[in-house]
Specification:
alpha+beta; four-stranded antiparallel β-sheet; 6 helices; binds iron/sulfur cluster
């Protein structure tokens, strides 16, 4: 698929903003992993979709080997104020659904590696670490979990990380060849 077709598909799947960068621009950073380990979101060592279960920074580089492009995708929360939880939840749900849609469209056509936004919430309680993941095919670990600094990736793809006042951008991506 051409870049134009990918962008068009992203719009049709419900994303608000999107751009493309080369996969070689992705830099996996131990510093991002350190933020996970510091318990910033509370999911560290609690899910198969998060560090340390997802693997090392070196594993992240191995996983993207062979991919040429990274389609960066956003859904943007339009908030009334900084505490507009409803708008944030809405954008979080929209990006989850939009990512599922684009993965369903692309997967039969090409090899892809989707990276999600936030931790996996498919099960009410993750099986980690006592039993294998229930739905490994449907789990898309977040960009941060892989070790990406999302603002850097957005910059490379010419997608704003900060949009206008009272907005919050949720970002995910899909690597493809
Ligand atoms: S699908 Fe379930 S078991 Fe697998 S990572 Fe997500 S919450 Fe955990």
């Amino acid at each position: 698929m051409t870049s134009e077709e990918m962008i068009q598909l992203a719009k049709e799947c419900g994303f608000d903003a999107m751009g493309i960068t080369e996969a070689e621009n992705l830099k996996f950073m131990p510093e991002v992993r350190d933020m996970c380990a510091a318990g910033k979101c509370g999911a560290y060592n609690k899910s198969w979709s998060c560090p340390p279960a997802i693997g090392t920074i070196e594993d992240s580089y191995k996983k993207i080997k062979g991919y040429q492009y990274c389609l960066v995708l956003q859904c943007i929360a339009q908030m009334e104020d900084d505490f507009d939880v409803e708008a944030m939840q809405d954008a979080g749900e929209r990006i989850r659904i939009a990512l599922e849609k684009i993965v369903a469209e692309l997967k039969p056509k090409m090899e892809i590696l989707p990276m999600g936004c936030g931790g996996c919430r498919l099960c009410s309680k993750c099986t980690y670490p006592d039993a294998p993941c229930r739905f490994p095919e449907n789990v898309f670990p977040s960009m941060e979990a892989y070790g990406l600094m999302v603002s850097n990736v957005c910059k490379k793809a010419n997608v704003p990380y900060y949009h206008e006042k009272n907005t919050l951008a949720y970002t995910c991506c899909v690597l493809y060849k």
